[in-house]
Amino acid sequence: MTRPRSTTHLPMMLAIVFALIVCIFATPSIAQDSSSDKAAKPDLICHTSNPDECYPRVFQPTDEFQTVHNDQELPNGLHVRLNIWTGQKEAKINVPGETDPSLEGLPIDQAVVVVDPEQQPDAPKIPRGAPEYEPVGKVKGPEHESVHFYEGLKMLKSGVTKNDKAFDDALEGLEDLSHDLYYGLKVAEDSDAIKALLCLMSDQRAATDGAIPRDQQAAAILAGAMQNNPTALKEVVKVWPQLVDSKCPNTGESLRQSIYSSVIPARNGHGTDDQQAAARVKSKVAVINGLIKDSIIRAEFLKDGGMASLLRVLMPEGKAWAGAQRKAGQLVLDNFMDEDMGAVLGQWPTIPRLSDEQCRTRESETAEGCWDYHVGRIMKASKAGKGDWSRELNNRLASVRKEQSKRRAHEEL
């Protein structure tokens, strides 16, 4: 006789089934939490065993510019800048309408797009005697060249005519086109045009009433031609020895005498119209900044008293001179103090700092040892914060002076 199945097993079975269902549905949640924790950990790139040298695979932007490593991924919408001389890339959070102070006064060609070359670790070695690689490449010309550009060059080389307005219009047209890589190179290839522009830039009487001063306009053309255009600079360098020893028809001075002194505020109307005078000086500082990217011209600039003339830009007081002084300070940082910007350290400064009392005297105010004094004065007057050119230059000068002091003490032992 079969015994009837006990009904006490039914609740137990239902409990087991319910527990299994709970486990099945709980498992994805646990897995998701685990994967979320894993995703929260930063994806790092490490080239060495030192964890301090690791950095995120995806660039983490802040409100200040930071170096972007070649193997980092850049999110969209950032403010990215590239130093064409060193290849260093920096990025920060983009702020609409914000301008980069280091670019103030310089024309910006927004048609240039920089593309990073792919990494090729297994590329073959360059054989000895192979021609030097030219990273710039050939500058492609426009489909239809501008007739007005060549007419403007012809008028520039012939000098000011009776129709002064036509000459001023020609300069304005040349300035607009000089920002283009092709036309900037065409200006640089014409040695007579370069001489005419440098002479016009150096002529302190070149100002005109009601229009942009011609010396400022000439400087803007030169700066536009050489900015981010190493090929154009090379063309100028080819004829530089002949250029600097030639005399300008309007001044009777050689360009060697007048190019660097052209930035002195007193030669640009300081004390009469400081706003205009500062604008003229700033445009000329931009030209010198482009020229001394070449090592030969940079050595001449140091030898021929260029730094003394540049230091005079820091001497005027007043807000009108802030832009010109920032341009001068940035020139010193980029070319002599900051290796990341292509500077060769040790070229300047080479003599010890002078005392503040000495730097307040007329005899020593433009001495090499007085840069610290004038930069420090501007830094204090403007209450410069972190990232300001005057504070950065002040700190780097202090560091150089400290090293110079250690070196002298070592030599005396």
UniProtKB/TrEMBL annotation:
Does the record's keyword annotation contain Nucleotide-binding? no
Single GO cellular component annotation?
endoplasmic reticulum
An example Gene Ontology biological process: protein transport
InterPro entries reported in the protein's UniProt record: ARM-like (IPR011989), Sil1_fungi (IPR031884)
Q: Where is this region: Disordered?
A: 119-140
Keywords in alphabetical order: Endoplasmic reticulum, Protein transport, Signal, Translocation, Transport
Q: Where is the signal peptide?
A: 1-31
Key word Hydrolase present in the record? Answer: no
* Stored Pfam families: SIL1
Q: Molecular function terms in GO for this entry?
A: adenyl-nucleotide exchange factor activity
What assembly does the database describe for this protein? Interacts with KAR2.
Please state which protein family the record places this protein in.
Belongs to the SIL1 family.
Protein's UniProt name: Nucleotide exchange factor SIL1
